[in-house]
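User: Here's a chain of 227 residues. Predict its fold as tokens.
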Amino acid sequence: MTRNTLLAAALLAALPTAAAAEGFNWNATLASDYLFRGIDQNDDQVAFQAGAGYGFEGGLYVGAWGSNVDFGDGSTDTEIDTFIGWAGDVGETTTLDVQLVRYNYLNEPQGVDYAYNELIGKLGVAENYTFTLGYTNDYLNAGNDSFYYGAAGSWELATDYTFNAGVGYTTIGGPAKNYLDYSVGVSRAFGPATVALSYVGTDGNAEDNFGADNSEDKVLLTIGFGG
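Assistant: Prediction complete.
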């Protein structure tokens, strides 16, 4: 994989929403852009995203999630992630969610394959905090090991608003640099919709890896529905 292809492949998928609840569930989002771990996936364009899943008795779930993308390769335009996992309580105030995700892309340039797998674990604590650990042995389909460490929290504010904050750190084998991403924002439910406004940023290493346009700090607006 060439360096240019590596950078294009870095415009990856957002993590799918786990289908942990028993029975069928779905989600749909309209977003001002598509960011994954601080990196732009859609060249500053509006993203239309949707997912669906089914949760079985005992915590097992399966599902899929999709979005439009623009990697700047003149071809790839759709991402579809498939996933399988288990979620459940592991304590009075602690939950665990473990899933295997396959990132798939449609209409890739001839001879290019961006698809790869990632194993992700999420530990929820006291309903306010989430700690994430992700691992792949084939980061960006380039054959390098990569770990993702994330921590996020949400706190209710007055007048039905919620404050959200998160930080993540990606380690990458090979010539690419490890980098930091972060986000802060507020959200509020309006009937069936949840509206969120966030500020998302990365450190200088992300710019070295993916370029200034793909890693610049941005304000992200999302409108989400689910059931």
